[in-house]
Amino acid sequence: MAFALDRRLGEYSKGMAQKIALMRTLLHNPPVLLLDEPTSAMDPESARLVRDSIIQMRDDDHRAIIVCTHNLPEAEELADRIAIIRKGEIVVEGSVPTLKSRMLGPPLMEVRLGASSNNGVAPLIGRYAQVEATGERWVRYSTANPVEVNAQLLKALIAAEIPVVTLSEVPQSLESVYLRVVGEEEGMIR
Fold first, then answer.
1. Which residues 6+ apart lie within 8 Å of 82 measured at CB?
2. Residue 46, SS3?
3. Buried-most residue among 6, 52, 71, 187 (CB within 10 A)?
4. What is the spatial distance between Cα 145 and Cα 107, in angstroms, rounded to a whole number?
């Protein structure tokens, strides 16, 4: 590291300059931290280190952290609350689960089967939940109460001797929420 002692800040790569700026910001242990695209131009290892540091600082009861970013997976990982800003105004805000529920609807579940789903599985599932899509060996459905519905559904599938391989929630991303908000704002989604 001795080679870097005489370098000017402008001589570092963008990623290294970003890390140095973050370190300078933290020197006086501020109670409020405003980070604008904190991992931009960083290699994956450095970005992971910065995200882990932000998570650790976030857990400190004496610090508020505001992260402005276009990196939605990163925002989802780091934030307790999200605000989507459009044309300078907050158009929607809340926790990630709240935004997903409000903007995307109830959780989407997928049951994978050990046999073809063409033998009347969709109508059986339709008795318990809203069937959204089907495939050769899977069915996707939505339900506002997955804990209760999934238990009932598994009992019904077992009683019908339909082998179940997996039952899991289909991940719904913050990007989907963002696209829904932007689409509604532009009148694209009704």
1. 75, 76, 93, 94, 95, 96, 99, 174, 177
2. helix
3. 71
4. 8
pLDDT value at position 72? 93
At 81, the amino acid letter reads R
Looking at residue 189, what is its pLDDT?
A: 46
Whether 72 and 129 share a structural domain? no
Predicted local confidence at residue 1, as pLDDT: 55
Which parts of the chain have pLDDT scores under 70?
Answer: 1-5, 9, 61, 185-190
Residues ≥6 apart with Cβ < 8 Å to 155: none
Tally of domains within the chain? 2
Which stretch of DSSP H or E encloses residue 53? helix 44-58
Output the pLDDT for position 21.
Answer: 81
- Long-range CB pairs of 139-142 (<8 Å, 24+ gap) are 139/110, 139/111, 139/113, 140/108, 140/109, 140/110, 140/170, 141/108, 141/109, 141/110, 141/111, 142/105, 142/106, 142/107, 142/108, 142/109
In angstroms, rounded to a whole number, what is the distance separating the alpha carbons of residues 145 and 42?
41
Do both 15 and 73 map to the same domain? yes
**Is 129 within the bounds of a domain?**
yes
**Residue 150 burial (CB < 10 Å; 0-12/13-18/19+)?**
buried
Domain of 36, in residue numbers? 2-80
Question: Is residue 65 helix, strand or coil?
Answer: strand
